[in-house]
Each structure stands twice: as structure tokens, then as C-alpha cells.
Amino acid sequence: MFYTGTGSSLQIGKETEYGTAVTPTALIDLTSESIKVAVEKGDEGSLLASKTPMSRDLLSITVSGSVSFILRPEGAGTVFLLTLGGTDTVAAGENGKFTHTMHLCEVNDNLPGATIIVDRKAKVMKYAGCTVSALSLECAAGDYVKATLDIQGVKEEEGTISAELKSFTIPSYRCTAAVFTIGDEVYDISSATVKIDNALETAPRTYSSGLYAGRPQHGRRSVTITFDIPYSEDVETLKSSFLTTEENASVKLTFTSSDQDHKVEITMPNVSVNDVTANVGGTGILTASVSGEALSVGDTEPLEVVITDENEETY
């Protein structure tokens, strides 16, 4: 007997106490996952004559991997909160909806822990104490918003899928009506990639840590954006304004569900444009690629994510 990937599922929830498993609160629209257990085994290095090593003793156990999925309104709040780590500020919005404003957590704050449960059909596995290492968003025109979540975990245990999280009711986010602006000007781009890298530092081994790794800590975080745009005079204006100067760009990316009341707004007020590439590669359409990095300037948050949805509670 064998299984196929169809029917597999993944659920995730924010932990109240790091490493203590919770019931998941969000269903992820899974396309692939690579969460796995890795072990280190060693021997004593004895000089006693033997044809092969005499033993392989278990020295450490770690969990890591990635989850690729389609970003949906039902799980977006949980995903962003686990990645950013800051507080979720809720306010009443238009048409009976609510806005959730999130920022990167403070320098000395811990990222929240997450419990991930994966149904691989042959067995359901639970991973408590997971920390988000990075989140990447691929936002291409005329396509769904695709995301990849890199995680570091602690251990693998048998789990149970929550029966309450079986399906989705709100259409997924897509870039059929997305808006991208730099300053007050709208740029008609063809795709954008946003990456939030938490620069996790693995906990050192100590006498008390035993087989399992301790809680990782984030380092100096990196928020980058890369976008492709049909080449035009606007690209040269962008290049002369921000690439060859020390002027920072204010960048905003907005994408929605087919239900326009459900949307995500990603704002980077101070972006250093580090590269603008626009070359002739043949007879086809000329495309320029631009990349930049969000900066911390004064008290201004380097990154703000505002999610509009129907949930009036904090994530």
C-alpha cells in the first residue's frame, strides 16, 4: 500500500508558552512541506580494534524544514504574527471588517513559538516549539500569492488533527488587482517577492539542554523586496532617484482576495534601493529588476503589515 499527497493537511497555532503544544487555530493551504527530524550520532573513538565503529550513540535531535502554501485570509494573521513577533493591534474597519496592524517585535523580545501538526495520511505528526526562521511571499500578476515558511523546531511527536479546521470559506489572496506604489506613484509591476528573514541564532548546547535544542533567538533581521517591471522611462527615473543617491524609497504592496474587503497591505517606509538591472536580452519585451532593503530610520517602523478581515480578536 502507498499514499499520495492528495488529502494531506497542515495546521498551525501560536503557543501561549514556548514549547507547550496548543490546538491549532489556522489551516494552511499546503502545497508542499519538508519538516524533518535530524539526529547526530557519535561513537567514543576508541582505539580498540574493530572492523567498523562499535556504537552509534544519540547525541542530539533537531527539527527543521519549510512549508510552501497559498496564502489565504483565514491563516494570514497567524502566519504574519508568528513571523513578525510583534503585537496585533485591532481596529474597526469599513464594511464591518477589522484591521490588524503588526510590526517586527522589539530587539530584545522573543519570537512566539508555534505548534505545527501535519497529516501525512500514514501518520499525524506534531511539532511543538517551532520558530519561524523566514517568510517569503511571491506575488506575480495574475496568480495567487504563494508563500514559504522556514522553521526551526524541537521535537517530533504523534499528534491529532483538529476537526474544526477542515476547509476554507474565503477565496485566497491573488494579484489580479494588486497595487504597488513607491511614494505617491503607482508602478505597474509584473511580480514582487518579499522576504522577512529573522536571522535565527541556534541555542548553544549546555549541560541542561539534553538531546533537544533550546529556544532560538532572532538576530538583526532583514526585510527585502525584489520586483520586476516592464522597462520604461519610469525605471530610469527610479534609478536616478534612489539607486545612485542615499534617498530612501517608501514602498507599499497591496493584494486582495476576490472579496475586496479581505486584503493585506505591506508598507516599508524607508527602503534602500540596492540594485536596478535593465538590459537587452533579445527581441522580446524588456524587463527591469529592482531590489531593495527596508531600513530602521529613527522611530519609524521598518515594516508594517495591515490585514483586513472579519476577525475582531487579536491573533
Descriptive report:
- There is one protein chain.
- The protein is mainly beta.
- The protein is 7% helix and 47% strand.
- A 6-stranded antiparallel barrel has the order 1-2-4-9-8-7.
- The protein is globular.
- The mean pLDDT is 92.
Brief rundown of the structure:
The protein has 315 residues and is mainly beta. The protein has two helices and 20 strands.
Mean pLDDT: 92
**Total DSSP E strands:** 20
Fraction of residues in β-strands: over 45%
Share of helix among residues? under 10%
The H-and-E topology, N to C, reads as EEEEHEEEEEEEEEEEEHEEEE
Biggest β-sheet: count, sense, barrel? 6 strands, antiparallel, barrel
Which descriptor suits the 3D outline?
A: globular
Query: What is the number of helices?
Result: 2
Structural class, judged by helices and strands?
A: mainly beta
Strand order of the largest sheet: 1-2-4-9-8-7
Low-confidence stretches: none
Radius of gyration: 22 Å
> How far apart are the first and last residues' alpha carbons, in Å?
41 Å
